[in-house]
Each structure stands twice: as structure tokens, then as C-alpha cells.
Amino acid sequence: MCKGTLSFSICPLRGILPLLSKKWALPIITTVGRAGSIRFTDIERILVGISPKTLSDTLSDLRAEGLLDRIFYAETPPRVEYSLTEEGAALCLAIQPLMEWAADRKGSGHRECLPACRVNGAENLCASHSESP
Questions:
Q1: Are 47 and 55 in contact (CB under 8 A)?
Q2: Distance (Å, rounded) from C-alpha 63 to C-alpha 115?
Q3: Beta pairing partners, 122
Q4: Does the structure show a pLDDT above 80 at 122?
Q5: N or C: which end of the chain has fewer CB within 10 A?
Q6: Beta-carbon count within 10 A of 74 CB
Q7: How many CB atoms lie within 10 A of CB 131?
Q8: How many other C-beta atoms lie within 10 A of the C-beta of residue 5?
């Protein structure tokens, strides 16, 4: 445990860490959290480089863990949207300090946010570091 913090058990992390440590899990959580409600193709467009299979599998895993809701609209053509559950929203808030730390970090692997990731000139806690339309 870090100095000056309360002691805790790492046991609760064992159940969720394998999911959250997947490459695209946190970017998906932040993308859905930023959007409020978002369609599969919009997530795919924002997260440049994610394959449809990886996106589908990760969305399913996040739903199974109770972090995402999938809402089906019986329209023609059918429409599906994803949103955060209450737990997903709590996770999204909890990872914001991590995102801020990563944005401020100057170590290896650090990438600057591109203009597409900025809102009103400030860093946006964005999931995508690519310029998307």
C-alpha cells in the first residue's frame, strides 16, 4: 500500500482486474461515459484501431460484469445503444485520476493528446488519441 493511504485488501481486484486490464476496456468505458448513450459503430469510429470482434467481445464482457447496459430498439432498421450502468459510471469517475496521471506523465510510452482530444483548449479525458471526424 502507498504511504499515507488506508490499508486495504487487494482481493476485490482479482475479480475485475483481468477485464479492466484488457487493452480496450478502459477506453470503451470512457468513450461510453463521455457519450452517455452510444451506438456500436460510433464507438468503433472513435476508437481507431479496434476490430469489430474485439469491440463486440469487450462490450459483452463489460455487460456481463454489470458495467454496461445494452438497449435494443425495435425499429426498422433495428438500433442498439450502449450506456454505463450505475457501477460503470462509478468506475468511469474512479479512473479519471488515472487518466489525468497518464496525461501528465512524461515517461516512456507517453503520447500527447491530439487536437481532437481537446475541449475548449483543455485536455479532455478522452479514450481516443487519434483525430476522428
A1: yes
A2: 31
A3: 119
A4: no
A5: C
A6: 6
A7: 10
A8: 7
For residue 127, give every residue at least 6 positions away whose Cβ sits within 8 Å of its Cβ, in sequence order, or none.
26, 27, 28, 29, 30, 31, 34, 46, 47
> Three-state DSSP class for 132?
coil
Contact 32, 84 (CB under 8 A): yes
Residue 45: what residue type?
R
CA distance 129 to 133: 13
Q: How many angstroms separate the CA atoms of 29 and 122, rounded? A: 21
Cα separation, 9 vs 13, whole angstroms: 9
Contact 46, 29 (CB under 8 A): no
CA distance 67 to 61: 9
Length of the chain equals 133
With a CB cutoff of 8 Å and minimum separation 6, the contacts of 66 are: 85, 87, 88
Alpha carbons 117 and 60: distance in angstroms, whole number = 26
Answer for the pair 125, 100: CB distance below 8 angstroms, yes or no: yes
Residue type (1 letter), 55: L
